[in-house]
Q: What sequence folds into this?
């Protein structure tokens, strides 16, 4: 479609505007009373007025950096002339908190979910094959691969048998936070409502021994939680046979699961963004935020994460924290990351990935500004460490790295039964046992990668939908996917290799 203005103004106080599409040099921009001095790529910024050297650069009336030189109006603005710098932040811990206006329980949205015996609600029904250490990886894959579509045809209510393979469990300290983190991640997946049954494999020489893992996590073996010890089974071939037999004994029970109408309050969404561009913070992220506000009003839960990707705008979350203590807990995690990354060429120290940069994001402040919009304007109710069980409804934060597979793994371990993933450059991410719904930030990428995307938020950029309208569309489609409708990544068979517990503990 033809747009009236090639640039988008996000706020009246902004001194930059964003190009809707590629704009050539010397093109008039009547609304800004200037013309482009250089070509401005789609998603990138143009100076809307003169910006003096050292002056803050404002987008959404938020500082995203400082002019590194005098910048005339019409100039292409990017990392070459926007300097990264320290900001003074007013955390206002809890001062802007406003309670959520909940929908009455009888009037809440519903979906078709699987109610487990303990009352938790699943969106999928998988059998998981887990390893406590990497030495069991090949055996886990062979056991899971045995249960292909032909063998599961008689069990139509089982979504699959999935191997959860990782590279930890050996070569790391035997105690401390790294081992505790690995154990709570594995236990979170084993206990996950979308895991109908589980098989756990140990080798006998893991630094995370199977008996110690069960004892530390409080997991108890039973009809739907079984174990195989490779050495005790008699080696690889016999361990595979024992694992197959163990799963065959669980199939009938797991297949007995049926969907029923349940409240949307049982949906817990892990929010991710990857391959972001200059449009992500304008369309997909705020549209997802609008959808999450609807979910939260209906009693559901949204998990914001990727700690290094909210750096610089964390004060917008602490200000609306339910208590000052919740706000301070978030700042404590930010401080941990700053110390952890001290002296390193990493994102939190300013530099974004090459793909993010090419898409129009100058630095981590600009990326964080867009990323935080996934949470909408809901109050921040709790802050969790990586893979901790999420028990608080509403908008919560989980401390994770920005790397998507690691971050989503922590959210799913915490209980997320759906993942919503925004992307501007085009991500092929998927996940199990919680399915991923992918949101495109712009129409050209959505059209190019339609088989990997679930919904096009680029219509906001095109001027064909508002953020509230897009949020409603996302929420309604989320309910359909939670009810069993396959997402694009599920149809593509993507997700089994994206189980990546945070590898902070490799030491030997």
A:
């Amino acid at each position: 479609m033809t747009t009236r203005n090639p640039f988008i103004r996000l706020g009246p106080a902004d001194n930059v505007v964003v190009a809707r599409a590629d704009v050539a040099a010397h093109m008039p921009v009547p609304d800004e009373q200037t013309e482009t001095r250089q070509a401005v790529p789609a998603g990138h910024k143009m100076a809307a007025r003169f910006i003096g050297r050292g002056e803050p650069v404002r987008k959404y009336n938020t500082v995203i950096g400082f002019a590194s030189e005098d910048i005339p109006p019409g100039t292409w603005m990017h990392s070459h002339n926007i300097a990264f710098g320290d900001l003074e932040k007013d955390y206002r811990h809890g001062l802007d908190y406003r309670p959520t206006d909940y929908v009455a329980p009888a009037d809440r949205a519903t979906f078709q979910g699987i109610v487990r015996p303990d009352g938790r609600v699943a969106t999928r029904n998988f059998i998981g094959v887990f390893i406590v250490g990497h030495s069991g990886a090949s055996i886990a894959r062979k056991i899971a691969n045995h249960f292909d579509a032909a063998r599961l045809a008689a069990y139509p209510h089982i979504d699959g048998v999935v191997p959860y393979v990782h590279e930890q469990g050996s070569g790391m300290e035997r105690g401390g936070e790294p081992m505790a983190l690995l154990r709570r991640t594995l236990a979170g997946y084993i206990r996950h409502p979308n895991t109908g049954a589980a098989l756990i494999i140990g080798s006998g020489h893991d630094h995370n021994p199977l008996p110690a893992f069960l004892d530390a996590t409080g997991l108890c073996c039973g009809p739907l939680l079984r174990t195989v010890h490779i050495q005790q089974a008699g080696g690889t071939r016999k361990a595979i046979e024992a694992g197959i037999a163990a799963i065959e004994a669980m199939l009938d029970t797991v297949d007995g699961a049926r969907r029923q109408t349940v409240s949307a309050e049982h949906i817990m969404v892990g929010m991710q963004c990857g391959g972001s561009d200059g449009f992500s913070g304008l369309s997909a992220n705020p549209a997802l935020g609008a959808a999450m506000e609807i979910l939260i009003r209906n009693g559901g839960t949204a998990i914001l994460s990727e700690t290094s990707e909210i750096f610089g705008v964390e004060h917008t979350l602490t200000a609306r924290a339910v208590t000052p203590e919740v706000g301070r807990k978030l700042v404590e995690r930010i401080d941990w990351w700053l110390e952890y990354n001290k002296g390193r060429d990493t994102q939190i120290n300013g530099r974004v990935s090459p793909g993010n940069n090419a898409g129009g994001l100058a630095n981590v402040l600009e990326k964080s500004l867009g990323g935080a919009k996934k949470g909408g304007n809901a109050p921040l109710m709790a802050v969790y460490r990586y893979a901790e069980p999420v028990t608080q409804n509403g908008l919560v934060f989980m401390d994770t790295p920005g790397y998507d597979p690691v971050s989503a793994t922590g959210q799913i371990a915490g209980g997320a039964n759906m993942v919503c993933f925004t992307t501007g450059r085009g991500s092929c991410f998927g996940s199990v046992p919680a399915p991923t719904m992918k949101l495109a930030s712009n129409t050209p990428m959505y059209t190019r990668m339609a088989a990997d995307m679930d919904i096009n938020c680029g219509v906001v950029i095109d001027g064909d939908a508002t953020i509230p309208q897009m949020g409603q569309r996302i929420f309604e489609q989320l309910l359909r996917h939670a009810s069993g409708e396959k997402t694009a990544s599920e149809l593509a068979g993507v997700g089994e290799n994206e189980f990546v517990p945070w590898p902070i503990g490799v030491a030997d």
User: Anything to note?
Assistant: The chain has 17 helices and 23 strands.
